[in-house]
Amino acid sequence: MWPKWVKTRSDSTTISTAPSSPSLHLTPHSPSLSFPTLKDLQSLLDNNNSPSTPSPSPPPLSSPSLRVFHRVRLAASALRAFQRSLPPPSHSPDHRRVVFYFTSLRIVRSTFIDCRSARSILRSLRIAFDERDVSLDHQFLDELNSLLRHRCGKISLPQLFVGGRHIGGAEEIRRLHETGELKRLVDGAPMGPPAVCQSCGGERFVLCGRCNGSRKQYSEKGGGFRACNDCNENGLRRCPDCCSVSP
């Protein structure tokens, strides 16, 4: 009476809902979960905890960043070496006095550029410092040679002293200024003048008022001329308004 396709569907449903054999309820054991001893279990746990892929390494620094890093590291190491080489600070009243030896001659261009650059750095700090031009007074060169007599080789210009301590030349001044250590070294020095000196125009020397730069004075007692004792070999003397007379 029922169509053949219905009977076939009923038979298939009956077969699918028939109770399965007891053997079908047994869960098959996976070979990976079969561990007859505790040693195999420990090895399995170690394998599961170990990462399958190594952790990615941090990306290398770019070339500009690497150069900046090396530059900062070299500056820091040079600063530490400079601090170790400094003698103990003096407790004299002039322990913050800044003395700068340089030359205004342009015969050697590299030396002139170094002196001008270091002089500009010191002036940017707005402090009062003693500028001693060795080309205008040979006595300054003798002082510098006496202060650096323990050094080997030729003395180069410029040279900086703070409180009687030798700081260094153009390279040391530039490096200390970049790290901010130069400002700390001159901290406590008197402030510089707000404007250029009207007497010498910032040259720190004026023409001798007694001999007018001729280096000769007439002596009424002897009836002749003699060398002027108030000026140097160039007929100049230190500016009384912006420089101290004593070295």
TrEMBL record:
InterPro entries: Glutaredoxin, Thioredoxin-like_sf. PANTHER family: GLUTAREDOXIN DOMAIN-CONTAINING CYSTEINE-RICH PROTEIN CG12206-RELATED (PTHR45669), OS01G0829400 PROTEIN (PTHR45669:SF8). It comes from the Eukaryota. Residues 1-29, 44-63 are annotated as: Disordered. CDD domains: GRX_GRX_like. Residues 11-29 have a biased composition (Low complexity). This is Glutaredoxin-like. Residues 53-62 have a biased composition (Pro residues). Residues 99-167 form the Glutaredoxin domain.
